[in-house]
Amino acid sequence: MSGPFPGRRAELVAAFRDARATGDPALMAEAALALPRGQGFGTHPGEVPAYLHEALLAATDDRTRARLLAGLARAWVYGGEAARAADFAVAAQELASAIDDPALTADVLDAALLAHWGPDDFAERIRLAARLEEVSAHLADPAARLTAHLWRLTTAWECLDTVAVRRQLRGLELLDAEAGSPRVSFYARSRLAMHALVVGDLDRGAALLDEVVTIGATLAEADVEAVVHSIAADLARQRGDVTALRTEAATFEAYGDAEGIVSVLAEAALLWLAAGEPDRAGSVVDRLPRPAEVVEDVDLLLTVSCVARVAAATGRAELADECADVLAPYAGRAVVNAAAVSFDGVVDDALALVTGEPARRASAAAAYQRLGASWWAEQLGAPAPAAPVQTEVVHLHRDAGETWTVGREGATFTLPDLRGLDHLQRLLAQPGVEVAAADLAGDPAGPREGDLGPVLDDAARRAYRDRLVELDAEIEEADAWSDAGRSERAALEREALLAELGRATGLAGRDRRSGATAERACTAVRKTIAAALARVERHDPAVARLLRDTVRTGTVCVAEPDPARPVRWVLSA
């Protein structure tokens, strides 16, 4: 688990200083931007932010400034101080929104995702990841497309969305075949190895790990060894290889101590426990911060889940209870590490160990059943996942009045009449059939109009952004006064404004033009479906995710069911 590459860093620092001496801000920026690439996740950023900031002050154009702001966000997140990253990520997005450059937009979206990687930022992370995927789909650069796949895969794992996991893994396989890049192969095969271990295919996982080790040896990537050790540790746990577990536990502990990374030390404790050394595991967790004091960043769930398992196994009842208090709000989530290359079960599993509640155990068993996670089900003492996949029954139909019934069989809910539900129902009724957005919008043969200019002018954008600031303050005040109704109304308005801003700016933040019939229809259908899905998500996030993964929108819309997840849609009362 090595950190940055000192030789490479020294070369970049020397290049930066030479550029500074010769008054070359462009070369200063390039040297500074290369520095975070050698920074291992969780390691102290050292002088990297200082060089980036100096280059930012010297930069002469907004494109370079946006890239440097994104670089600063990355440096602080990788340095374990995500709170410092948020402002830089926001500033980078604001600059990029005025520049017609999809590659730049993809870069700053990646930085924004890093800055919103905490467990409470999940909804924003879903939105940003979808936006990044949309932008990167139009880029030939394999690196940008790789980043988009990895973010969508990470969010899919987090919420146990098996359909999206498989889709993104397939996307990585295709990109690997197309790109011919060792870096793409490393990331694609490491994520495929993780999935193989989750579903209990240890032979394939081990074979992929060998490939990852071989490819990683050729790369100048800071986190290669961390990825390799994460997969190797998971493989050792499932094989019950005590010798390998002790080796990995010692490696994790030494690295965690050297870099001061709490999550790595928590993983080390769990590995010592799996290696049959509970006393050593307990001594590690005893020197970690209390659960309520753990930073609420990307590794919060991993850290507290590992500590909870060790505490439950070593009789640390008070510590176990503290872990349960922190984990409870995140029930239903998977526990993955920062790179989303290591799976440590689900939150409900850790809660079941600590609390003994049958409902928690049942929820964890259902999650492992859905994932096909046989080893995890066995550890829980639940029946192994069955091979056949059960057909899920989901309702989406209009009732006799002006309401709709939506949701899974036995857990339906009622929504008001929303046009987006009409669109979804029509597409689901004819799977695989492409329907023009203009037809869905009710304008199949209307006149075709020319370009009438930007959807929003500068004054309107400023007014929208000023109103967003006001709404944020209103939501905060309403929450402080426990005024749920006012908070929800403000949140709905905020959501609508953000959607409008998103629709008014196309790729790389350039203005969308109004007047073109197909474009207007595409925008209208997207907005109405997005609004309907937002309402569905408040009642059942899993159904909303299923609909998002099934229905594709654009100038042509289509429902594409996943054969691996059979669903029977009930579309009439």
How would you portray this structure in words?
By secondary structure, this protein is of the alpha+beta class. It has 4 domains: 1-115, Alpha Horseshoe (Serine Threonine Protein Phosphatase 5, Tetratricopeptide repeat); 144-166 and 184-388, Serine Threonine Protein Phosphatase 5, Tetratricopeptide repeat (Alpha Horseshoe), CATH 1.25.40; 389-453 and 522-573; 454-512. 64% of the residues lie in helices and 7% in strands. It is built from 26 helices and 9 strands. The longest helix has 23 residues, at 458-480. Mean pLDDT is 85; it is low at 443-453 and 506-515.
Kindly summarize this structure in a few lines.
The chain contains 26 helices and 9 strands.
Shape: globular
Q: pLDDT below 50 for ≥5 consecutive residues: which ranges?
A: 443-453, 506-515
How many structurally independent domains?
4
Q: Count the DSSP helices.
A: 26
- Radius of gyration over all CA atoms, rounded: 25 Å
Which oligomerization state do the chains in this entry correspond to?
single chain
The strands making up the biggest β-sheet line up spatially as 5-4-3-9
Q: Tell me the span between the first and last alpha carbons.
A: 58 Å
Helix content: 55-70%
The major sheet is characterized as: 4 strands, mixed
Kindly report the average pLDDT value.
85
> Which class of the largest domain in CATH terms?
Mainly Alpha
Q: Quick one: how many beta strands? A: 9
> What is the CATH topology of the largest domain?
Serine Threonine Protein Phosphatase 5, Tetratricopeptide repeat
Fraction of residues in β-strands: 5-15%
Q: What would CATH call the architecture of the largest domain?
A: Alpha Horseshoe
Secondary-structure-derived class: alpha+beta
